[in-house]
Amino acid sequence: MPRGYADRYFECSNDALPLARALYQEMSALPILSPHGHVNPKLLAENCAFADPVALLISPDHYITRMLASQGITYEELNLPDRSGERTKKIPAEQIWQLLAENWQAFTGTPSRIWFEEILTQIFHIELPFDQDNAAEIYRQISRRLEDSDFLPQTLFESFNIEVLATTDGTSDSLEFHKALEETPLQSKVIPTFRPDDVSDPERADWKQALAKLEQSTNLTITSFASLRFALRTARDRFIRNGAKATDHGVPTPFTIDLSEQAKEELFSELQARPATPENAELFRGVMLMEHAQMSADDGLVMQIHPGSVRNYSTSIFEKFGPDRGYDIPARTEFTKNLRPLLERFGFAQNFRLALFTLDESTYSRELAPIAGAFPTVKLGPPWWFHDSLNGMRRWRDATIETAGIMNTIGFIDDTRAFLSIPVRHDVARRFDAGYLAELVSSHRIREADAHFLAMQIAYHLSKDFFRL
C-alpha cells in the first residue's frame, strides 16, 4: 500500500488527522444501513455465481459506461443489451475489460475511479495498479475469485456487515424475491421500497399499462381517481407487510398542489381520454405527490422525493437501449414555492417524514437547508447521484451545516445498482465525514465530544431513526 493510504479521503489538516483516525475507527465498526438503493433482490435470492468481471463491475454501472461513451466508445462495443435483451455484437468480456483499462485516465478524479479501485484493493485484495499493462492479470485474478464458494452474493452480503438493504421496486412488483429471501438463513434484512412513478406520471409511455398492472396486482378496477387512490393504498399495504419502510418519487419537479375531489376526478378522466399535455401531466404529478404525502402521514412510510432529472435525455440511447443507461441529466429545480402546499398540510404532521434530495446544488443553502432547518418532518438527503463524491460531499456539508446542522440530515445513501460498491461507498463517505468533523474540532467550531457523537449519528443512527429500521 502507498504511504498514507490508511489516511485516504480524510481531506483534513495534519493537526486534525489523529482525531479523524479515531472517529473513522468508531464509524467503521458500525454496521452499514442502506435505506435507499437499487440492487436487484433477484441477485441475492438466486445466489448464483457472478458471470465475469465485466458483468459484475462494468455493465451494471452507468457511471462507467457513460464515461466510456463520452470517449467515443459505443454501447455496442461494451456489449450492452438492447431493449429486447439482445446484443448486436458478441464482444469477449476480456476485450471490454481491456478497453476500460486503456481509457482509465478518463476517470481520473472521479468517484467512479475511487470506488472501482477500492473494490479491487479492499474486496479482491489486488495490489497491482489498474492500467492497460496489468488489466489482463487483474481480470484473471478476479475471475478465479469469482469461482470461490465464499464469493456468492449471500456470503458477500453477510461479509459486508450490511444490517439493512432497501431495494427500489415498482408499484405492482410481485416482491417474490423479497419473499424468497425471508426463507434463507440471511441475518441481514432486505426490504422493498415503494416507487409508484409508473402510475403517477401520465407522460410515461407505459402509464396506462402501469394502471392495468396495478389493477391486476390489487384485484381492483380503476375507473376513477378515487379508485386509483384506493388501489395505491392497497399496494402500499402489501409493501408494508413485506417490510417496506419508505417510498421513493423520482419526479421532474417537486411541484405540489391541492385540488378539490371534483377537480381530481376531472383531471384523471381527461388523461384517460386523450394523451397528456405537459401542463396537465405536471398538474397530475403535483396532485399525486400530495396524495402520496397523505398516505405517508397515514401509514408512516418515509417519503423520499428525488426531483430534477431529465430522464432519458438521449432519445437514440433510450430507444435502442432503454432507460437507466447514463443519460439522465440534471436540471434547475425550485423547491420553496413548489413544496409549500405539501408543507402547509404536512410540515408539522406527527407521523409524516420527508427526505429531500436534489441534483441542483444551488438549492442547498438557498432552499433545502432552510426548509429542513425549520420543519420537524423534513430532513436533507445526502449528495445524490452526480454529487456523491468527495468534492460533492464537501460542497453539501459547507452549504447546509450552518442552517440545517447535521442532525437534520439522514446519513449516507449509496443509491447504487453496483452490489460490490455498497461497502466501499459507505467507507469513503465515513472517511470523509471523519475528516470533516475533525477539521471542525481543529478550527474550534465544535468540541471533540460533539465530533464523537455526530460521527455515530452520521454513520448509523440518523438513518436508523429516520427510516425506523
Describe this structure in words.
- The chain has 469 residues and is of the alpha/beta class.
- It folds into 2 domains: 5-46 and 149-466, Alpha-Beta Barrel (TIM Barrel); 49-148, uronate isomerase, domain 2, chain A.
- It has 20 helices and 11 strands.
- It has helices at residues 17-28, 41-46, 53-57, 62-70, 93-102, 111-123, 135-146, 153-159, 176-182, 197-200, 207-218, 225-241, 261-273, 278-299, 315-321, 336-346, 363-372, 390-404, 421-442, 448-466; strands at 32-34, 162-166, 169-170, 189-191, 194-195, 246-249, 302-305, 309-310, 329-330, 354-356, 378-380.
- The protein has a 4-stranded parallel β-sheet, covered by helices on one side. It has a 3-stranded parallel β-sheet with strand order 1-2-4.
- Helix 1 packs antiparallel against helix 19, helix 1 packs parallel to helix 20 and helix 19 packs antiparallel against helix 20 (448-466).
- It is globular.
- It starts with 16 loop residues before the first helix and ends with a helix.
- The relative contact order is 0.14.
